[in-house]
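does this look right to u?? calcium ion version
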Amino acid sequence: MPRILIVEDEADIAQALRDDLQLEGYEVEVARDGHSAVSLGTAQAWDLILLDVMLPGRDGFEVCRELRRAGAGAPIVFLTARTHEAEKVLGLDLGAADFITKPFSPRELRARIRARLRDRQRPEAEVERFGELEVDLARGEVRKGGSKLEITPLEFKLLLVFLQNRGRLLSRDRLIDLAWGRDTYVTERAVDAHIVNLRRKVGSAAITSVRGMGYRFDG
Ligand code: CA
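got this back:
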């Protein structure tokens, strides 16, 4: 039974989340402030931590840093109230697995939680498939309808980054960190240009451009 720690100060939301996730069969605990979140988060093993950003005392970002410093490795899904908080989740390298903007539907939340828990269980696949595309990790090849695509090493890297982050919004900064490497100087326009090329080769439907935020791979 996966164990989920909910960090949320608003009693109504915390209670609703607890009830909903318990019904789904998860074992759930609630922490109501940053301090107890850190102590509970590090004292026990969790499969996932649902972390509200707006908390009294220490905010969710600080709690996340402390949990990571203390060695808590569970995926962290942020609950954010505003878009600028969501941008911060993307911008700061907090190691967040995902974020959900309030108000959210319980159904969406459950789906995201299932997806993040699945990520943990999935063994390393040698060939990833989506649509008629096959990404062969062992051979470093991409095939479309069985025939090999001409793809640059950088495009291959970008595609891998997208595959590893299916359904997750990636800012251009994050893409640069993951595909080019941290501290590499690349302009956002260069990122866009490479993605244009990649979309032309693999099909534009798989990679969604999210205005002002970045890209998301839905393949
Ligand atoms: Ca709150």
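Residues 106-121 form the longest helix (16 residues). idk if thats expected tbh
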